[in-house]
Amino acid sequence: MSPATLAVAAGRPPREQGAPVNPPVVLSSTYVSTGVPGPERLYARYDTETWQPLEEAVGQLEAADLPALVFASGMAAIDAVLHLATPGTAIVAPRHAYLATLTAAHELTAREGGVVREVDIADTDAVIAALAPADGPAASLLWIETPTNPMLEVADVPALAAAARAAGVLTVVDNTFATPLAQRPLTQGADVVVHSVTKYLAGHSDLVMGAAVTSDPALRGRIHARRTTGGAIAGPWETWLALRGLRTLALRVERSQASALELARRLAGHPLVAEVQHPGLPTHPQHERAAALMDGFGSIITLRPRGGAEAADALTRAVHLWVPATSLGGVESSLERRRRLPAEAPTVPADLLRLSVGIEDVEDLWADLDQALRATA
């Protein structure tokens, strides 16, 4: 089945006479147990039947052989997967990535040994060279974002994953921006995929959750052990909300991607816009790569208005429909000047706005952006 169908059909209860169509929410912290524990459920920090439908659905969406593992947040999933790196080695990661991911990687290597080697993830040769440089420790983990946050660089996942596997390096792909509808990194050679379920998978800006997916039983066991020991578990109501949100993933992403591409095209010709980037534009440096490797170009746009950071801040105050807020992937369109956050990479332009396109009418979104650009010119 296609990912669009799986988003609706996966994780349903067995089709039995009188059975519910949707899985129930089980509110219990513990389970009846006597004697030596067996394979049955024992305690809700280890496993619950409320997680299972969502884990099955996300695993199937990513074409994994095993169910996903859900976490209390995207960062909880990222932290657990970063711990797959061998202490004393290098983690190779994009210089432009979710800033909390880079922070967590640097803190991990500072505590347990090793280094974080930041690279231009779109430069395939440079990334491969960073896996085993002449000086410094070799890598044990390659972390990929594609498209990157917020610069929208696109990586050659099959080439990087093949080179990493040949070097004995694990490949992890954060697939939050693209979603499984646009790319399925496990089928391109990645070992693990992570998601901030908070974003597109849940899609309504009303919960915080993460997920990690792999087809390797040993890797899944290590990630599961980290979740159990760390206690970074998802709550039952958040899990239920995330699964309900997942059911409309294809409709939401189809609408937001189409609108994003149309808005990017219009913004590229706007007299008050200095620069716009979107993988769907022929002017994007990795447009051909994105067209070859992805089934869609995503719903994120970067915009640099004429007038610098001051104009960018003014634009966030002048919009009426777009929501000035961090995060992304919700049904509502939002925008944010990323360098307002002190930890953002200094190579991100100070005037860059990250736009997350939602599902509103594209003409209304355009009218609001146009009036805001003119109001702040």
From TrEMBL:
Q: Which UniProt keywords apply?
A: Pyridoxal phosphate
Which Pfam families is this protein grouped with?
Cys_Met_Meta_PP (PF01053)
Any GO BP annotation: cysteine biosynthetic process via cystathionine
Write down the Gene3D superfamilies for this protein, in alphabetical order: Aspartate Aminotransferase, domain 1 (3.90.1150.10), Type I PLP-dependent aspartate aminotransferase-like (Major domain) (3.40.640.10)
Query: Which one of the record's GO molecular function terms can you name?
Result: cystathionine gamma-lyase activity
Needed co-factor(s): pyridoxal 5'-phosphate
Where is the region Disordered?
A: 1-23
Q: Does the keyword Repeat apply?
A: no
**Which InterPro entries does its entry note?**
Cys/Met-Metab_PyrdxlP-dep_enz (IPR000277), PyrdxlP-dep_Trfase (IPR015424), PyrdxlP-dep_Trfase_major (IPR015421), PyrdxlP-dep_Trfase_small (IPR015422)
Its GO CC terms? Answer: cytoplasm
What PANTHER family does the annotation carry? CYSTATHIONINE GAMMA-LYASE (PTHR11808:SF15), TRANS-SULFURATION ENZYME FAMILY MEMBER (PTHR11808)
Q: Which family does it belong to?
A: Belongs to the trans-sulfuration enzymes family.
The name this protein carries in UniProt is homocysteine desulfhydrase
